[in-house]
Amino acid sequence: MSDPPTERGDFFAVAGLEKSFHGNAILKGATFTIPRGKTTVILGGSGAGKSVLLKHLNGLLIPDAGSVSVDGETLTGMSESDLTPLRQRIGVLFQNGALFDSMTVGENVAFPLREQTKLSHAEISDRVSEALDRVDLTEAVAKRPEDLSGGMRKRAGLARAIITRPEAMLYDEPTAGLDPILASTVARLINRLKGELSLTSVVVTHHLGLVRTVADRVLFLSSRSVIFQGSVAEFFASSIPELLDYRNAAESLSEAGPSGNLSRKLEQFE
Amino acid sequence: MSHFRPHDSLWISLTSFFGEVALLGWGVLKSVLRFRIRFGELLKQIAFIGVGSQAVVIITGGFTGAVFAAQAYYKFNQLGLATATGPVVSLAMCRELGPVLAGLMVAGRAGASIAAEIGSMKVTEQIDALRAMGVAPTDYLVVPRTLAMVISMPVLVGEAIAFGILAADLITVELFGVPRTWFWEQLSQHTGGDDILVGLIKGAFFGLIIVLVACQQGLGTSGGASGVGKATTQTVVYSSLAILIVNLFLTLGFNQWLPMSSFAQ
Against a cut of 0.90, is the pTM above it? Predict the structure, then answer.
């Protein structure tokens, strides 16, 4: 197994990553790096393996072949207990927040500190208030996850992920299922947290708008591998056919939206 | 953790199932030996599994004892052995019916609930969230449930036995008029501490089976709500079958190690 190519500036480095589920290859030879302190957006079609790729970055999934390293430490072959200190340096925002149903928002956000630290009750309470304040959710501290909207659940999940002050954040579809206003709120939060906490961020999304608002770099997944990695400008200038198709489809869909041509045509028809 | 998959052969599925249950059991043992026990969670689970299952187990034990006493009395009375009803019911309740019926009821109530809860956590990525925060799902979810089940089941079996025998007393003495002194004299002569111990040990065994199968199925859940339903159903079916099959071997073994009191004397 070859070690991934790491540079001093890279927080994550992945080399030759392969993963199959029940005989279906999802990733085949994915190789890329994620620079420290930057926001990298991973794009790709449905089923391209974006979320699978993300879950390899903190060892939630074990690759069939290839290697993943975090800050120069190779994850591949580590036991669950060896992975614990590394995982504690990486926050994750799951697609639907993954809040624990049996706890209130406050208890959810406090959970990582209760598990990982010996802070007093008062200190944990202060940190919970601070984390909820960062995501503008202080009013929901006593609510149960089932009483929250989709956007609130994501923000609560984000507060839980950042309460331990991680060095990196993994965002799995942070704007999926949100209306444009909530999606732009989440995008602003991603940028704000990156600035305030100097986070290395990896954002998996379908949403081309996020590339424009949060990305420093873009990875594009297709045919089970990373076919593009570069800056945002390079992404929009690229003439790789898969990227062109994706951009055109995303842009035509946005045109078909409430203010787009298709809507206007439909209104005229009515 | 994987699941039974339709394209796997039965042999692979069975091997995979038993392997996963065994690995889960080994993981729990390691955590317990390292004293990674969350007492708050353990108490919550004892309240849910033990206290919450009392009513269903007591009703099951009571009515089984009553029905068994009625059936036994009708036959024994024809043979002039009406007072044998007490010992027969008590031995059956202690050694077989108490633990097996309590096990089946707890599998249906608590086992299904554990599989559904953990399965829902799996499909909503709460298990991944635990792991991402450096918390082992075995320590957080499986250990407290396993200990709670192994602690609660012998108590529940004890209650099923006690209420089964009390119900037998009601039927035999109050309904059929067998003198209470004879009923209890015969019962105590033929039922010993070993008989009760067998029932309690079986209960702990069955509890272990239920909780490991439920956790294995829950942690192996995939495919959303239908996956949770499948895991729940499979937990009840597999653990109930396992209880009935394992009970045979436990009975054969216990009759060598702790034989029935009346024959041991």
Answer: no
